[in-house]
Description:
The chain is α/β, with parallel strands linked by helices. About 40% of the residues lie in helices and about 15% in strands. The chain has 19 helices and 14 strands. The chain has helices at about 5, 30-35, 45-65, 80-90, 105-110, 120-125, 155-160, 170-185, 205-215, 230-245, 260, 275, 315-325, 330-340, 350, 355-360, 365-370, 380-400, 405-420; strands at about 40-45, 70-75, 95-100, 145, 150-155, 190, 220, 225, 265-270, 285, 300, 305-310, 345, 375. The chain has a 6-stranded mixed β-sheet with strand order 2-1-3-12-4-13. Strands 6-9-5-10 form a 4-stranded mixed β-sheet. Strand 1, helix 3 (about 45-65) and strand 2 (about 70-75) form a beta-alpha-beta unit. Helix 9 (about 205-215) packs across helix 10 (about 230-245) and helix 10 (about 230-245) crosses helix 18. The two termini are about 35 Å apart.
Amino acid sequence: MKLQAGLLAVVLAGSLAACGSGGDGAGDADAAAKARGPITIWYSNNAEEVAWGKQMVAAWNAEHADQKITAQEIPTGKSSEEVIGAAITAGNAPCLIFNTSPASVSQFQKQGGLVPLDASYIEERSGDVAQQYKSPDGKYYQLPWKSNPVMIFYNKKVFAKAGITNPSLATYDEFLATSRKIVASKAAKFAIYPAPSNEFYQSWFDFYPLYAAESGGKQLVADGKATFASDEGKKVAQFWRTMYADKLASPEKYTGDAFVDGTAAMAVVGPWAIATYKGKVDWGVVPVPTSAGKPAAEIHTFSDAKNVAMYSACKNRGTAADVLKFATSKDQDGKFLAATGQMPLRKDVASAYADYFAKNPDYKTFADQASRTVEVPNVPNSITIWQTFRDAYSKSVIFGQEDVGQALDGAAQKVDQLVKQS
């Protein structure tokens, strides 16, 4: 599964019209909250997630003959966000969607499409990280489900070809020096190849992980103000500008996977990719760099999370709430981890599944990193805010058409206005 495809452009089987579990909107919310009966759920098209979903549904249905789940992959559409938004408008969204992007929650909430969830359960399961997923009204309209902490994968064979056996990638200077050595040796055409396209979410895999690390865990917007035009944000942006200016990264769109193909020596990605790289790349992994080279135990990164939300068209919300807790129980989270390698957003993930990590040491680093992840800010106009940032970033950092500092300052002013308008 390509990274961007896994994020948004999910091409899935099914028909939107056939999937609703409601049809006449929320109806009587109080009655719906207590009602139990059959429900419909959607999940991603990722093969491993589908396999997990099928066993979860079978386990539930075996014990609840009068409250059966009907499950399917998200219907085909340009993006999962558009499909879900259309279903909310039509009043036929399913009860639960196990593929809800945190960036879209404010939009879906504004549409009246979401149901507030049990805060005590969420906070007990996820711990302090849950606070990042709380909406401005103090309620949770998403359950933090699973994350893919973004780190730097590197191709050991490509590095060896460049004469590098113990890569130094902790600081910007080290990362740049290593990148120059790779390109100069022609071990790979580029050191790293983040997508240079202008979709709003692309900044989650170049700027944002490094900004989270450099700033000690700041979100793009905090306390009603843009944070990214800070000294930390400008250091990160200037680092990437140097990567592009020195032709260590490419501004040209790539068709395929540059890391798997050997075109790039490194990639910015999370643990879901391990299965993709199996048998194709002999890889190693390190935290994202910082200007001064913070210790690994202090590095924050982007979560790349997908969450579970309950949709207001659901009539049998009592059952939906029970299914939500069943599907995110310690037992089911363990099965999800084993099936997908993705990190359940639990406060005890490393210790709760110690046996799994002992048997699968490749994933242990990600379990540690999962305790220090930064989510997109849960604010109104979230996607517009990200697009505003991406436009400025693309123009200045990727294409060098504007001064980096001035571009970030201008984008921050626009974002502050968007926050005020909400």
